[in-house]
Design brief:
- By secondary structure, the protein is mainly beta.
- Among the domains are: about 80 residues, Sandwich (Immunoglobulin-like), CATH 2.60.40; about 80 residues, Immunoglobulins (Immunoglobulin-like).
- It has one helix and 21 strands.
- Strands 4-10-9-6 form a four-stranded mixed beta sheet, with no helix packed on it.
- It is rod-shaped and about 150 Å long.
């Protein structure tokens, strides 16, 4: 009778000791897919490449890369000079330039009272409040790469008179007698000049306050336009001047007993 050899048992024992029965163990779990729309900050969802945070202070992000800023140049506001009037809103001036946008706007000297330089857009606007002689203003546009300048000459004129009126628009004069009108009431700006068209009758004058005075030397009936103005503008009214003989004080015939007054 043949003896049985324990070979299979020995093989199994060797496999167990070396860990070769891995097929009998459980398999590793399959990873769950990441939904990047719901979890955009997950490490597997962050985009690769350059981001805006990678750009230096003097660079600009173009969407997929950083490039160096371009200095602004050829700054222009569309005009070289401005003539404004106190109390009247100016037409806003919007700058044009080449290169990248300015980050800061400066002006020297300070703009006339009532005008402003917008620090974000560079627009000049406002309503002047004080008359100022013509000055040259330098506007500077700056970013991290450089700057550009432009100059504008600005003159602010006083507000023009709005209206004026005399106590009456009719002057009745007697030949050889004083007559006239007191200075008128003026509304709005100060009247710095006065004129009459056509000129007043001989003997009458128009002074610096707008008053009319004098002694009429010529008979007549005439209409005149009186104009009050300053550098900001002018306004006018019409008056009428009638010059007559003085009425007789009485009637007397020499050698006659009757006397009429």
């Amino acid at each position: 009778m043949k003896s049985v050899q324990p070979v299979p048992i020995l093989i199994v024992a060797m496999m167990l000791s070396t860990g070769c029965l891995g097929f009998l163990e459980g398999e590793e779990p399959i990873p769950t897919p990441i939904d990047c729309e719901q979890n955009p900050t997950h490490v597997n969802c962050e985009p690769g490449g350059v981001t805006e945070d990678d750009c230096a202070f003097n660079q600009i992000f173009t969407g997929d890369a950083c490039r160096f800023l371009l200095a602004p140049r050829n700054l222009y506001f569309g005009v070289d000079s401005l003539q404004l009037v106190v109390g009247i809103q100016m037409q806003s001036l919007t700058p044009s330039f080449e290169g990248d946008g300015p980050e800061n706007w400066l002006v020297n000297p300070r703009l006339p009272s009532g005008l402003v330089l917008d620090q974000s857009s560079g627009e000049i606007s406002g309503i002047p409040t004080i008359a100022v002689g013509e000055l040259r203003y330098t506007i500077i546009a700056v970013n991290a790469a450089g700057s550009t300048v432009n100059t504008i000459d600005i003159l602010v004129l006083p507000a023009a008179p709005d209206s004026f009126f005399y106590s009456t628009n009719l002057i009745q004069c007697k030949l050889g007698r004083e007559c006239g009108l007191d200075e008128p009431y003026v509304y709005g700006g100060i009247a710095e000049t006065w004129s009459a068209d056509p000129p007043l009758p001989d003997g009458l004058s128009l002074d610096e306050s707008g008053a009319i005075f004098g002694i009429a030397h010529v008979l007549g009936d005439s209409n005149h336009t009186i104009t009050a103005g300053n550098l900001g503008g002018s306004v006018s009214v019409d008056i009428r001047i009638i010059t007559l003989h003085e009425a007789p004080n009485g009637l007397n015939y020499p050698g006659h007993p009757y006397h009429w007054n």
